[in-house]
Amino acid sequence: MMNTAIVFLTKESQSETKAFAKKLSEHFDVFIFDDTNIEDKGIGVLSKRDGNVETIKISDKYCKDEGYFGTNIVGQTHIAKEVLAIDKFLFEFCEHRYEYKHVWVFEDDVFIPSVETIINLNKKYRRYDLVTPNNFEKNDKILDWHWKHVFDKIETPYFYSMVCGMKVSRKMLNQVRAHVKANKRLFYLEVMFNTLANHGKLKVRDAFELKSVVWQGRWSADEFLLLPNNVFHPLKNIHEYEGYRKEIQVLKNMNFKPTNNLPHFIKDLM
């Protein structure tokens, strides 16, 4: 599976993320993009490898100069930076890491129950170019949400989804690269991937296993047991992830029967 990469996007890489990345690296090459800016070091890229896990830091300026910025709308979201970890991932994988045909990308506050979760996802969705929680189409011209920051960046039709957890293929990355070459910038990430994929007639799938990637989800052991192949967002207490994984295994060994209080947008699809 080494033509598949797993990518974690972090504000600052944490030991818990690195430990899980190490387990995943028995099956995949794993990359951690640490958004710590390194401009004061006078270099564009700083990389450190530990086995099949590579931690990468890229200068904000270097990334922006190459056109890989704009996935965030500064002043309209809770993030104040113009260049994010996802811009740095896109720069690195669009311009340099051509060997990877399939890339699973997760923000570090997405909880992944086990290594097997990723193995199963990768097997099931290998033939798709973009796998996201949803693939909604905007059918009106109302300037709600962030649309006024999108309409001048690309022509209709528009498609959108959260992308805290997603899969992109080499074709998808090539579509992003072509947009950068033509426009010298990116645009809002929750519209960009789905819109570019649909414009490029790529294979898009809204995966059931990603339906638990939502803006404000409330998740516990019951949901982890009911949906063992799902990933969950947001769980901000990253330092507790390994404890959750151990708890899941203990409850499985006890034949624990979870309570099904899944939200209807998931329950109705089961």
Task: Give an account of the 3D structure.
The chain is α/β, with parallel strands linked by helices. Helices cover about 30% and strands about 20% of the residues. It is built from nine helices and ten strands. It has helices spanning about 15-25, 60-65, 85-95, 115-125, 170-185, 190-200, 220-225, 240-255, 265, and strands spanning about 5-10, 30-35, 45-50, 55-60, 100-105, 130, 135-140, 160, 165-170, 205. The strands form two sheets. Strands 3-4-2-1-5-9-6-10 form an eight-stranded mixed sheet. A two-stranded antiparallel ribbon has the order 7-8. It is globular, with a radius of gyration of 18 Å. The two termini are about 30 Å apart. The mean pLDDT is about 95.
Kindly provide the radius of gyration, computed on alpha-carbon positions and rounded to a whole number of angstroms.
18 Å
Poorly predicted ranges = none
Shape: globular
Order of helices and strands: EHEEEHHEHEEEEHHEHHH
N-to-C CA distance: 29 Å
Quick synopsis:
The chain is α/β, with parallel strands linked by helices and 270 residues long.
Write the layout of secondary structure elements.
Blueprint: E1 4-10, H1 15-24, E2 29-34, E3 45-50, E4 53-58, H2 60-65, H3 85-95, E5 102-107, H4 115-124, E6 130-132, E7 136-138, E8 158-160, E9 165-169, H5 170-183, H6 189-199, E10 204-206, H7 221-226, H8 241-253, H9 264-267
Parallel strand pairs: 1-2, 1-5, 2-4, 6-10
Antiparallel strand pairs: 3-4, 5-9, 6-9, 7-8
Helix pairs in contact: 3-5, 5-6
